[in-house]
Every structure is written in C-alpha cells, then in structure tokens.
C-alpha cells in the first residue's frame, strides 16, 4: 500500500483533483428556507448547525459509507492532516477544515480528492442541530392565529397577552428556566372538549406556543 505522506505533500500544494461523483456521494444536505407565517412574525432562524471535528466526521463516514470505509480504524496524523486508511486501500482524511478521500473510492486519482468542508457535513452528521429552534417569537404569532378547526385562536379565550384561564397558563408556562410545557397544552386539548378543535396543531407549534407563554409569564424577551 502506498504511503500517504508523499501524497499529502501534493495536497499541500493544492493539486487535489475534483471528482464530481464523490461530491454527489458525500455532499452534505442543503439547507432550506421556511415559509413565512401569515402573522407579523416569521419563523425563527435555524440553530447554527453543529460542525463535526475530524474524528466525528470519520466515525460517521465509517457508519454511513461502510462499503468504502469498512471497520473502525484509528486516526493517523501527518503534519496538519488527520486521516484513516482501510484494508481496501481507501483513505479518508481532514486537512484543516477540508475533507478528502483517496484510493479506489476516488478512482485511484493521483492525489486526494476534496469532497467538501467539515461544515458542509454538519446536517448529515448532526441532523438534530439543523432542526428548527423552539421560538417564543413564532409562538406569539401562532397564539394569535386561527389554528382551531372552528376558526378560533388561543387568544380568543385566554386574552392577548395571555391573561384568562390563568391557572392553566401558569402550568403551561413551566419554570422560569424552561421553554414552557407543551405537554400540558396537549393534555388539555385531549381532555377538554372546548379545546379539542386544536387537536390538529402540531407538537412543534405547541412547543413554540408554550415558549411564548413562558416568556410572558416570566417577563423574558421573546426569541
């Protein structure tokens, strides 16, 4: 098996070959924009995706693309590069923030092939970090929106800002250091006939409404 060190010198000189097939194979998921709400506020921005480090990225590659990177291998290091080598002759490695592959997986190219930056793989490696954040700001708009099957909004019974049915609101607000208790709202929807018109409201929307009630109850800024 060829040693990787001479090839890494080629890599440092910027002679890595582009390979469209590998980009399609290992490219990370793209981000999409959310549709704006009909109310005055828009959906809150997504949380900043969690960027994997070299070890986490290569662990993920072994699990996701085991046919190319079979079995778990230990990290090796050369200069500023961290890489792993496999019995089938394939390499995967990271130089700074750039991810490279080499060997049969790259068509036995003359030099390692760059397939993206670590940040490009964030949503693939840590999909939960790309999920929408709980947003009291969005919850404020949902609270005023006609979400009920009969065309009613939460504010129609509880006031705007929330004030009526204060005991239930206090329960849904939860502790100050929380983001509210959407499960309490769901339980009330399931058990109280006047609220059953809200049965179709998603758990994501209830979480945002609970975050809004929490912010109002404890005087916290909306986010």
TrEMBL record:
Residue intervals passing through the bilayer: none
Annotated ranges, domain Cytochrome c: 134-217
Tagged with keyword Ion transport: no
Gene Ontology molecular function: any one: heme binding
Full protein name: Cytochrome c domain-containing protein
Organism superkingdom: Bacteria
Keywords assigned by UniProt, alphabetized: Heme, Iron, Metal-binding, Signal
Organism: Ramlibacter lithotrophicus
Annotated InterPro entries: Cyt_c-like_dom, Cyt_c-like_dom_sf
Signal sequence extent: 1-18
Lineage start: Bacteria, Pseudomonadati, Pseudomonadota, Betaproteobacteria, Burkholderiales
């Amino acid at each position: 098996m060829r040693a990787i060190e001479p090839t890494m010198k080629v890599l440092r000189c910027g002679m890595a070959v582009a390979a469209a097939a590998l980009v399609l194979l290992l490219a990370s998921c793209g981000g999409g924009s959310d549709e704006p709400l009909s109310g005055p506020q828009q959906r809150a921005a997504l949380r900043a995706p969690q960027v994997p480090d070299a070890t986490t990225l290569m662990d993920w590659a072994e699990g996701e693309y085991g046919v190319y990177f079979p079995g778990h291998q230990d990290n090796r290091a050369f200069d500023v590069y961290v890489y792993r080598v496999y019995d089938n002759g394939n390499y995967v490695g990271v130089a700074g923030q750039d991810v490279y592959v080499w060997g049969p997986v790259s068509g036995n190219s003359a030099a390692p092939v760059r397939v993206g930056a670590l940040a490009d793989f964030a949503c693939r490696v840590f999909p939960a970090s790309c999920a929408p954040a709980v947003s009291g700001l969005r919850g404020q708009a949902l609270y005023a929106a006609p979400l009920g099957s009969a065309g009613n909004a939460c504010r129609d019974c509880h006031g705007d800002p929330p004030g009526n049915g204060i005991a239930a609101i206090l329960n849904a607000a939860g502790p100050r250091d929380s983001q509210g208790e959407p499960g309490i709202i769901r339980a009330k929807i399931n058990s109280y006939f006047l609220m059953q018109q809200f049965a179709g409201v998603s758990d994501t929307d209830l979480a945002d409404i609970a975050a809004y009630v929490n912010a109002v109850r404890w005087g916290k800024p909306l986010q």
